[in-house]
Amino acid sequence: MTQANHQVDAPTVAGWLAADDRCDTDRGDAVTVVDVRTPAEFESAHIRGSYNVPLRLLGEHAGQLRDRLGHRVVLVCQSGVRADEARKRLTAVGMDGLHVLDGGVPAYAAAGGDVVYGRQRWSIERQVRLVAGLLVLLGTLTSLVVPWMLALAVFVGAGLTFAGLTDNCMMGRLLARLPYNRGDEPSAEKVLDRLPSNRAA
């Protein structure tokens, strides 16, 4: 499958990070890996040396991130969808040198990359599949007694179709706001302070 210009595969990212480890990591072209998943997902598994900037905070502070980060940034999530949304938001404020890890953290782990594991939690994508499936099942079964409940299954199906066409999943956004997924979400100031300063400055 042909990759878009901004997409990069896991072995390539692993090679970049390995090269940085062998060289001076303060040089201007060093790679910064930004994980845009929720803090809970990040705690479950993340690329060693990556920085967690949840998509919600990234969208609200895109300009500050542009000024803070260097010019080689790899955005990662669970599959690549949220990372690509982050890329669009950062591109909109004039940031370049952005890459999206194709296949997300699971692909990086499968390629033998260095992944740090912690408390295991379900990814947002998996939660969406579970909730959507349960709602469709509920709507279908209860429609045998209450016919209008079939509308629930239709509504969920329409929502999933919209998400597939636009890469914008409202159910995923709602689930990401649950305390289970937010974990101990730090303030925007703490998130920004943890990031490396602009290496190209």
Automatic annotation (TrEMBL):
Superkingdom, natural source: Bacteria
Pfam families in UniProt: Rhodanese, YgaP-like_TM
Residues annotated as domain Rhodanese: 27-117
Gene3D superfamilies assigned: 6.10.140.1340, Rhodanese-like domain
Family annotation (InterPro entries): GlpE_sulfurtransferase (IPR050229), Rhodanese-like_dom (IPR001763), Rhodanese-like_dom_sf (IPR036873), YgaP-like_TM (IPR021309)
Entry-linked CDD domains: RHOD
GO molecular function, one term: transferase activity
Membrane spanning stretches: 128-146
Keywords per UniProt: Membrane, Transferase, Transmembrane, Transmembrane helix
PANTHER family: FAD-DEPENDENT OXIDOREDUCTASE, PYRIDINE NUCLEOTIDE-DISULPHIDE OXIDOREDUCTASE
Record-given protein name: Rhodanese-related sulfurtransferase
Native organism taxonomy: Bacteria, Bacillati, Actinomycetota, Actinomycetes, Propionibacteriales
